[in-house]
Automatic annotation (TrEMBL):
Keyword NAD attributed: yes
Organism of derivation: Jannaschia rubra
Record GO terms (molecular function): 3-hydroxyisobutyrate dehydrogenase activity; NAD binding; NADP binding
Gene name tied to this protein: mmsB
Active-site annotation: K162
Enzyme class: oxidoreductase
Name under which the protein is recorded: 3-hydroxyisobutyrate dehydrogenase
Annotated ranges, domain 3-hydroxyisobutyrate dehydrogenase-like NAD-binding: 156-281
Reaction catalyzed: 3-hydroxy-2-methylpropanoate + NAD(+) = 2-methyl-3-oxopropanoate + NADH + H(+)
Residue ranges occupied by any 6-phosphogluconate dehydrogenase NADP-binding domain in the UniProt entry: 2-153
This protein's UniProt keywords: Branched-chain amino acid catabolism, NAD, Oxidoreductase
Length: 290
């Protein structure tokens, strides 16, 4: 297929390289990042989109996505697919889908989980919102970049699934960190706490796959001085998107809001920036003051 790929950063770079390596004709554009192996440089976003069967975007946020959509949609062929893999707010995803429909372009929101490791290995999970016919068109590309695709419903529902998932992740990690800090103060050995909770009702992905305590459970960023992994500031971004969406539909998310406050203070006023989000354990372990 002929593909335009816009946003070739930490995630988009390896995703585009995998598509090129699979034999697709990929034309890329980024305002800063270099062209990945096998990707031909376009002069602009519109140039990358011209005559493409599929235009893929992997951009920082909804404002950038809307600006790029303004540039690429007029250049796209009717019937082509705009596949946005960025994590953005639900409103931006739905606005771009409506704008695309006006030009007879199909739009899919398809945020991912799996991080840079999954992008490089081609094992991402895609959560897709939009029409099933457009998903059929892009499925061969998703199969190159990822291992699993879940169709979540109409436009915006991929983003909705992503922020719900990450709100669960953020809150379970925060309370897992608190449990380790509480165990310390109660004189309970961390390994003993892990051995009980990992096989009891306190079990979660945050505990058993991504344990925030160094030396406990499987290898995780905690064992690598909390190098990300998934940076704490990205967790703040995703949890802010969840709170914004909750406000928009009047959903009560007090636990999510408190978890966000913990990560935001860790990143903005403490030493959390540049660390993995599981480093929140360092904050939880300090004496009570929050
Ligand atoms: P990144 O900052 O490394 O890449 C974004 C790229 O977009 C940059 O190279 C930037 O130069 C480019 N860009 C910005 N404005 C542009 C414009 N107007 N035109 C063209 N290019 C432009 O970020 P990333 O880590 O690759 O993340 C991309 C998206 O994926 C984000 O929405 C992020 O939330 C999401 N995501 C990231 C991870 C992760 O672990 N990094 C995991 C899942 C989802």
């Amino acid at each position: 297929m002929r593909i335009g790929f816009i946003g070739l950063g930490n995630m988009g770079g390896p995703m585009a390289a995998n598509l090129a390596a699979a034999g697709h004709d990929v034309r890329g554009h980024d305002t800063a990042a270099p062209m990945p192996d096998g990707v031909n440089a376009a002069d602009s976003a519109a140039d990358a989109a011209m005559q493409a069967d599929v235009v893929i975007t992997m951009l920082p946020d909804g404002a950038v996505l809307r600006a790029v959509a303004d540039q690429v949609l007029p250049a796209m062929t009717p019937g082509a697919v705009l596949l946005d893999c960025s994590t953005v707010d639900v409103d931006s995803a739905r606005a771009v889908a409506a704008q695309a429909a006006d030009r007879e372009v199909h739009a899919l929101d398809a945020p991912v989980s799996g991080g840079v490791v999954g992008a490089t290995a081609g094992t991402l999970t895609f959560m897709v919102g939009g029409r099933a016919e457009a998903l059929v068109t892009v499925q061969p590309l998703l199969d190159v970049m990822g291992g699993r695709t879940v169709h979540c419903g109409p436009a915006g529902n991929g983003q909705a699934a992503k922020i719900c998932n990450n709100m669960i992740l953020g809150a379970t990690m925060a309370v897992t960190c608190e449990a380790f800090a509480l165990a310390d103060k109660l004189g309970l050995d961390r390994q003993a706490m892990y051995d009980v909770a990992s096989t009891s009702s306190g079990q979660s992905w945050s505990l058993t796959t991504y344990c925030p305590a160094p030396g406990i459970g499987p290898q995780s960023p905690a064992d690598n001085d909390y190098k990300p992994g998934f940076a704490a500031e990205l967790m703040v971004k995703d949890m802010r998107l969840a709170m914004q969406a909750a406000d928009a539909v009047d959903a009560a998310t007090p636990v999510g809001a408190e978890a966000l406050r913990q990560y935001a203070e860790f990143v903005e006023t403490e030493d959390g920036r540049g660390r993995d989000f599981s480093a929140l354990l360092l904050r939880s372990s300090r004496d009570r003051r929050h």
